[in-house]
Amino acid sequence: MDSCNIFINLLLTITLCFFTLPAGAQIVYLYTYCPNSTTYPVNSIYDRNLNSLLSSLSSNSTQKNGFYNTTAGQDPSNTAYGLYLCRGDVAMDVCQDCVVTASKEIVRKCPRNNESVIYYDECMLRYSNKSFFSQVQYRPWLPILNTQNVSEVERFMRLLEKTMNDTAARAANDQSGSGKKFATGEVNFTSFQSLYTLVQCTPDLSAQACNSCLHEAIARLPSCCEGKRGGRSIFPSCNVIYELYQFYRVEATAPAPSPVPVLLPPAPRSRGKSQISTGTIIAIVVPTVISVLAFAIGCCLLVRKSRKKFNTTLEDQSVGGDISTIESLQFDFGVIEAATNKFSYDNKLGEGGFGVVYKGILPNGQEIAVKRLSLYSGQGLEQFKNEVVLVSKLQHRNLVRLLGFCVEGEEKILIYEFVPNKSLDYFLFDPEKQGLLDWSRRYKILGGIARGILYLHEDSRLRIIHRDLKTSNILLDADLNSKISDFGMAKILGVDQTQDNTNRIVGTYGYLSPEYAMHGQYSLKSDIYSFGVIVLEIISGKKISSFDQSDDAEDLLSYAWKHWSKGTALQFMDEALMDSYSKNEVIRCLQLGLLCVQENPAKRPTMGTIVLMLDSYSVALPMPQKPAFFLHSGTNQWKELGPNQTASKSMPCSVDEASITEVYPR
Ligand SMILES: *[C@@H]1O[C@H](CO)[C@@H](O)[C@H](O)[C@H]1NC(C)=O
Ligand SMILES: *[C@@H]1O[C@H](CO)[C@@H](O)[C@H](O)[C@H]1NC(C)=O
Ligand SMILES: *[C@@H]1O[C@H](CO)[C@@H](O)[C@H](O)[C@H]1NC(C)=O
Ligand SMILES: *[C@@H]1O[C@H](CO)[C@@H](O)[C@H](O)[C@H]1NC(C)=O
Ligand SMILES: *[C@@H]1O[C@H](CO)[C@@H](O)[C@H](O)[C@H]1NC(C)=O
Ligand SMILES: *[C@@H]1O[C@H](CO)[C@@H](O)[C@H](O)[C@H]1NC(C)=O
Ligand SMILES: *[C@@H]1O[C@H](CO)[C@@H](O)[C@H](O)[C@H]1NC(C)=O
Ligand SMILES: *[C@@H]1O[C@H](CO)[C@@H](O)[C@H](O)[C@H]1NC(C)=O
User: Fold this and answer.
1) Which region is the signal sequence (predicted)?
2) DSSP character at residue 575
């Protein structure tokens, strides 16, 4: 598995999928959102209504503003609601082709689902048994990126945000009378490169709703597309796109020739060449490659989707009619909205792999942290509620408490206790602040983390594997007690916990054990590995991910191993610790850290043993074996993922999974 190479896989994928392209197709398919959790019976009233809805959308596909919403059915409980939206710049005949195709394909790709969304480059079409007109919907989130890099990343991202903001303002307050909430923008980036932006909302939204939707889409761009030449952030209600070439059609010019797919490796372009002369080549080739890529990825996502199985029944854990508990944990959406000032940007605390976190204050003055889930949850509402109830019962002083949840339409929100200090990484890796954590504090923090995990692993009745332990998931309260956050997410999101391998890896590269990262096998010992990485980070004050940035530096694990085997443990230690340390403790912790990151999971200690080792110096530690340096073999593909990317976004080892690097629904 060490030869897995994203580029090769991607090309292979493109090639495979390219040949399944229907002849003459001009419309580029992107993705279908197919929740599958609720299906209707064939020949039911809803089935018939849906059919008539889709044919009415098709036959009304020549609307001037490229948008049409309608309903079918009288009886409210069987009404089908639907709309289509064509990209603001496409010609009416293309729009019509796209909508007609979409209305056929949506039932083929997503049979008998109560709701679904299908995306093409040129249009999107969605339906549901619930009314969603005039409502902003943030799920699913579909990011797509152009794999080519941009120069001057920081300046580019600032320019992008500003230009996007300007374009969004024009789209939301569209005065052109076109009936579209659509705008494009163009600014100079360098003397020979311009940045092109396109934003659009479904016109049923109010100006204000459109504005909020676009800002959320813009705010998420950095998390998919930082430093990339092009990207898209797509919600059902709105989307934003940017590229360094003019990808949209400008009114009054001849329509661009339809792309002829060309297979080109997405290799970096040499910089020495005259950019002006390559401008046209880029403009022709890049859109084509992207279209093909996008198609390939969409195509393969589907393949992947169909292989994914969510086992939503977890044995021995049913809540069994615990309705009162569910009720007491459920927060009203209005209350949460008010508490977070409508999820205002100012209240944003951060963004993790599972969504954006906001600070909120309840009417009674209680401070809370509100996590707006962006990952698609593979299970129905009841199951989600049940899992939240179970996870909220996990209570320990070293765990962040889950207070409840809130559901609004598609949107799922978790409410946690608010922990006033920031996360461990905030202190540990900041040269200004790492001095605040002297050795005895670090040792105390370590002990807290260990006890928290021990509770998850052994003491609670659920036996939870955290699966994404890292310093940014360890919060510190005012007394610097460690509190682990984000546990139980696999459960809440309905990722199967009962098997020992999975198609969907949650976790962050660098912290993932080799067997988990490479083969998707997880166990309690995968958490032990991540804990070992945290131990080494705490001792050294160095980030696991900081190493692969510098050119030839070794990684944290081999660095630790080198000092351990040479008997120079104190040189591995963070200089900021000065003489606050206990030599004996530092050496034991280094040994413990190395024991935890051993390649053979069976050789790693259990959490129970670790707590014992930390509490008592009289427990003898075994000799560690050299860790596996699998992540830093010098090959490119790991860096491609970026140091802090959550692995659920990208899986390196097979064709369909590699493609997730480019498109990932949330
Ligand atoms: C799907 O929608 C129809 C129409 O609203 C409804 O009758 C049916 O119960 C829904 N299916 C499920 C599984 O809830
Ligand atoms: C939409 O299509 C239906 C038939 O499918 C037709 O009856 C209706 O008039 C059309 N609406 C518009 C606005 O064209
Ligand atoms: C389309 O959406 C608008 C805005 O929500 C709504 O007022 C209108 O009734 C919808 N049209 C149909 C045919 O349902
Ligand atoms: C729509 O279907 C969902 C299940 O998908 C069901 O819970 C809900 O009651 C249905 N809504 C209406 C209005 O029938
Ligand atoms: C983009 O930049 C990353 C590092 O920032 C590098 O690893 C990668 O190879 C670059 N990709 C391309 C296509 O140039
Ligand atoms: C863009 O808009 C957001 C939200 O209104 C704002 O927070 C941000 O500062 C703006 N950025 C720029 C560069 O104008
Ligand atoms: C962008 O650059 C071109 C050529 O250098 C120049 O003619 C044009 O005015 C510039 N546009 C803006 C908006 O600055
Ligand atoms: C959803 O339904 C489609 C069509 O039956 C199926 O191919 C796919 O595997 C299902 N997806 C999931 C996640 O179960």
Assistant:
1) 1-25
2) G
- By annotation, the residues acting in catalysis are 468
Q: Count CA atoms within 13 Å of residue 486 on its CB side.
A: 23
Closest approach atom of ligand 8 to CA 308: 13
Q: How far apart are CA 205 and CA 54, in angstroms?
A: 21
In the 3-class helix/strand/coil scheme, how is 122-170 assigned residue by residue?
CEEEEEECCCCCCCCCCCCCEEEEEEEECCCHHHHHHHHHHHHHHHHHH
The tens digit of pLDDT for each residue in 591-636 reads: 999 999 998 999 999 999 999 889 887 778 889 998 876 443 332 2
Give SS3 for 184: strand
Pairing relationship of beta strands 367-373 and 402-408 according to DSSP bridges: unpaired
Q: Read off the pLDDT of residues 165-183 as tens digits, 9 standing for 90 and up.
A: 999 999 999 877 788 999 9
Identify the burial level of 252 via C-beta atoms within 10 angstroms of its C-beta, where 0-12 means exposed, 13-18 middle and 19 or more buried: exposed
Q: Is the CB of 226 under 6 A from ligand 3?
A: no
- d(CA 489, CA 464) in angstroms, rounded, equals 10
Atom 14 of ligand 3, residue of closest alpha carbon? 70
Dihedral-angle region of residue 75 (phi above 0 means left; psi in -120 to 50 means alpha; beta otherwise): beta
Show the tokens assigned to 627.
Answer: 């860790």
Domains and CATH numbers, the chain: 29-128 (3.30.430.20), 139-252 (3.30.430.20), 315-417 (3.30.200.20), 424-637 (1.10.510.10)
Higher pLDDT, 154 or 258: 154
In sequence order, the 6+-apart residues with CB closer than 8 A to the CB of 477 are 419, 420, 421, 483
Cβ neighbours of residue 201 closer than 8 Å, sequence gap 6 or more: 171, 172, 181, 182, 209, 210, 213, 214, 237, 238
Q: Name the percent of the chain lying above pLDDT 70.
A: 73
- Residue pair 506/468 in contact by the 8 Å Cβ criterion: yes
The model carries a pTM of 0.49
Distance CA 569, CA 591 (A): 9
Is residue 556 within 8 A of residue 591, CB to CB? The reply is no
CA pair distance 501, 499, nearest whole angstrom: 6
